[in-house]
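Ticket #4471: complex job returned nothing on first submit. Input attached below:
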Amino acid sequence: MNRCGHWQLVMMLTLLIAVPARADKRGQEIIEKLDRLQTAAADQYFVFDMTTYQEGKSPTTMTLEVYIKGTRLRRVKFLAPGDLKGTRMLVRALDQMYIYLPAYRRVRRIASHVRDQGFMGSAYSYDEMAIVTYADVFDCDLAAESDSHYQLKCRRRPGQSFHYEVMEMDIRKDNHHPDQLRFFNAKGQKLKTDYRNDYHCRDDGRTCTPYTMKLVDHSRGDLYTVMKLKDWKVNTGIKDSFFTVRALQRDR
Amino acid sequence: MRVRLAGLLTVGVLLAAGPDRADELRLELGGAIQSDLRFRPDDKSVGSFYNRLEWKPGIARNENRLEFKLRARYGDAAAVVELRAAWLGWAEQVLAIGELADRNRIDPYYFEARAAYLDMNDFLVEGLDLRVGQQLVLWGVGDQFNPTNNLNANDVEDVLLFGDQRANFMVRADYTFLDDFTLSGVLVPVFQGAQIPRSSPLGTAMIDRVSVLEDDLRKRIVFENTLTSYRYQFLGMNIPATPAVVSGSKIVLPERNFENMPFSFRLAGNMLGQDVALSYYRGRHDFPQPVRNHAHQRMFDTPSCDPASGVTSGEFDPSLPCIDGVIETEVEMRYPRMQVIGFNMAGEIPLDWIDESLLGIGYRIELGVYMPEAVEFEIYQDTMFAGSLLLEQPAGEYDYGLGGEKPHVVDERVFAKWVVGLDYSFGPHWMVNLMWVHGMADEFGAGDFLRKGYQLRQSRFVGESPYDCLFANLDISDPDGAAKAATVCGERSTEEILRPRIGDYAVAGVDFKFADQKALLRLFVLWDVSGYYRSYYDEQAGQRVLEYLSLFGDGFSMILFPEFHYNFGNGFELGAGALLQLGKRFTKFGDPAAGGSLLWTRVRFSF
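Support reply: We reran it on our side without changes. The output follows.
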C-alpha cells in the first residue's frame, strides 16, 4: 500500500509539473459525491478520544465532543483533560470563529490566523479539524483507479486559504469514503498523512464515518494523533441556534 | 476517599456524554488544585519614621487553593456553581499565645463564590434567556483591558490575574432575534466595589499626592502639609512639628435601595461578519474616591525622633529630625456615580489581497464614553495649635478660598477610555498581540492627551524654609492673610510631578510555543506612554512651567512580564515567571502601591 502510494506520488508530481492544474470532470464528480455523502445527514454528533503519540514521550489524551450541521456550522467542546475541560469552540465560517475559555469565563472572537497554530499540540491543525467539504477548496483530477479505489490528485483552488497546496485522496469504491489522505506543500514535500479506518454507516448507509483516524505529521518527526470515535449520532435535530455565540457562552 | 472522588468523576463524565436530551439530567464536575509561591525582590516601604509602612523583600505569597465546579442541566434550565477556597499560608497579625490553638487564626483562609447562578433558556418565549445569581457579565472584547466591563467590580487583588472581575448577584435577561442579534438587560441589586491589591495601603503614606483638582488649592494644601511637618522658632515661640498622617479611612458603600442599583443594556449583533455591540451602563465607578478629610491634631507627651538619626528627644531644636505630634487625618471615600456608553467591535481583517497564503488578522476595538458625576471634596478639622496666639485655627470646615465653592476630586467633564488591539500568528510557534490602551481600570476623570487634566503623582517643597516663605508673604492686617500667603508659597515653592488622569499604554505580547505546544514562553510588555511632567515655578519666567519628562528617562514606566508554562498533559501544569514593575516611585508601575516586582511559580492540577 505504501509502496504503491509512493509510486503514484512520483507519477502525480510528474504530471503536476507537466500539466497546468485544472480539474478533470471525473475527479470533480468523485469529490463532489464525497461531499454530498459527508453532508447527507442534517447534523451529526461525535465524541472522540484524541491521543497524540511521539517517540520517547508519554502519549497525551483529550476527549472532545463535536457537533456539525450543514457544511459550515461546527461546535467543539473539550471534556478532558481537566485543564481543557469546558473549553468550547464555535465555527460559523472559517473567518468567524469563537472560543470560550473557562478560566476567563468569556467568549473571544478568534481570527483565522490561529489556523496556523496546531490544534492543542496534536498532529491536527485547525484546517484539518474544520474542513467539512473538499470540492469547494480543491480542484481534483482522477489520477488512478483500481478495483477498490479511486485516487484523486487535488490542487487548492485560487483564493482558498487551506493550509496545503496539494492533497491526494484514496477513496474506497464500496462506501465512497476516503481511507487515506496525503497533504503536500507547494514544493511537493509530503507534510501529513491521514488514515481513516473502520467505517460504520447509519441512516440506511447514507451516512458513514470512520471510527479510527490517524494523522501523521511528517514535519514533526512523524508525531501522530489517533482519534477514536466513542459515540456518534446522526440527525439529532439540533437547531441552528445551537451554533450561536449566545449558545456557546451558555454552554447549551 | 480517592476511590469516591474517582467514582464521582466517572459519573460526571458519563452523564456529560451524549447530545442534549430534555428529559436527562446532565452533571459536570470539575475543579483544580493550585499552589502559588511568590517572592518580592524590591523594598517598596514608604513613609517617614512616624508613618512608615513596610513592604520588604521576601515571600510575597504562599497560597494553596482548591477550586470546585459543578454544572447541572435539565432541559432548558441549568445551574452553575464555582467555589474557590484559598489557604493564605501565614497569619498577617501578631498572635497571642492563646490564638496558637485556634486553627482559623494560624491557618487563615478565604472562600469565594466565583459563580452561583441559574440559567433558564427560551424562558416563556423562544429566544429569551434569564440568568439569576452570582455571575460575571463580561461584554468587552478587549484582552484584559475592558472599559465597557462595568457591571462587575474589578478584582485586582492578585496582580498576576490582571483583568479579573468579582462575581456579583445579578439578574440578566437576553433576547436573541434574527439569529445574530441579542438585546440584553442586567440589573445589579447591590453595588460592589473593586477588590484592591494588598499593597494599596502603602498609598495612604504618600500624603503628598493631594487629589484636589483646583491647582492653587492643591499647591496650597501641599505647602501647608509641608509647613506643619517642620519645627520653627519665631519671636521666641516654638512652633511644633505635627506632620499630617492618614490615621484611618472609611469606605462608604451606597445605600441598598432602588436608586443605587446599577443597570445596563446592550444590543449586540453580527454585521458583515463583524461583531458589533452598543451598550449603556448607569451605576458607579468601582474604585472609591476621597470625598472628605477630617483632621485632628494630636500632640505627643514627648517628641518623637527618627530612630535612624540616633537623636533622642531633648530640647526643642528645629534642625533635629523630630516631631511633636501628628495631624491625624480620617479619609472618607465613596464610589462616584457614572454613566458609560460602550461600543465594541471585533472581527478580522483579510490579508489575502496581499498574498493568498496570508490569513486574516484579528482586531478588537472597545470604547467607553464615561459621563461622571462631579465629586466634591470637603476638609474639616478640629482646633489646630490650640492656645497659640499666632497659629491657632478654629475647628470647622477648611477655608478653600474658592469663593464659597467646594473643591473637586472629579469634575463632570466627559472622558473616554478605549482599547484597540491586533493579533496575528506567525506559523505554529509565534503569536503576537498588540494593543493601545487608553485608560486603565483605576483611572477616572477627564484629562488625557486630548483634554487637559492632571493627576498629582508627587509633590515637595523646594524652598529653604516653609515658615520663612509664609512670613515673607504674610499680611497680618488681612484676616485671610495666612491662607493667601500659603497660596503664594504653594505657587512658588512646590514642585509637582503630574500625569494625565487617563493614561496611555503601549501593550505588546509575544507567545512562543514549542515542544509540541506543551511549552509556552510568553513576554508581555506594558509601556506607560502617558507622559509625566515636572511642574515648578520658573523665577525667570515669573510663572509656573511644565517640563516634560522623557519616556526613556525620569518618565520611564514599564511592566515586563516574562513567563514560562509547561503542560505535562492530563491536567498537570507548571508555570514560572517574573512581573517586573519598572520606573520611579511617582510613575504608574514604579509606585509602591502597585506592589513592586514579583517572581512567581505555580503548579496546578485540573480535573
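The helical segments of chain A are 2-18, 25-38, 126-130, 245-250. Closing as resolved unless it happens again.
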